[in-house]
Amino acid sequence: MAFTETTARLTDQGVMAMLTSAVQAAGASGQPQCIVIVDGSGVVLASFRMTGSRYLSLKSATAKARTAASIGAPTHTLPDHAKAALAAATGGDVTGLKGGLPIRSGGVLLGGIGVGSGSGEQDETVARAALAAIGADDI
Fold this sequence. Notes:
Strand order of the largest sheet: 2-1-4-3
Shape: globular
Distance between the termini: 34 Å
Order of helices and strands: HEEHHEEH
C-alpha cells in the first residue's frame, strides 16, 4: 500500500512563460487584461493587472482561475441553472463567466488560468495564448 504519490506542477518558468504570453496577446488585441494563474489547489502563482484593465476584473479573473482548476474544465461549461447558486454559495469564488481554463499537461491537471476585463471571447483567447506558451493540452 502506497502512502505517497508523485505530483506534477507548474514550474516558475512555466508560470512566467504563460503570464508573458497572456500579456502579449492582450496587448496585441488592444484590450488590457487582468491575468491570474493558480495551482491545482487554487493557490495564486501569478497575478497581473495590465494598465487600463478594470480593477474589479482582478477578482473575477481569480474566481475564473480557481473555478477552472477546481472543476478541471472551462468555467463557461458550468450548467446555466447552477451558475448563480454556486456564485452565491461561494461568495463569488466560483463563476461561470467565460475566460477561465484548466491547465493540463499530459492529461494531468496542473491548475487554472483566469483572464478578465474584456469580452468573454477576448478573455478566453488570451487564456488560450498562455496555455499555448507551455504546450498545454488543448481544451
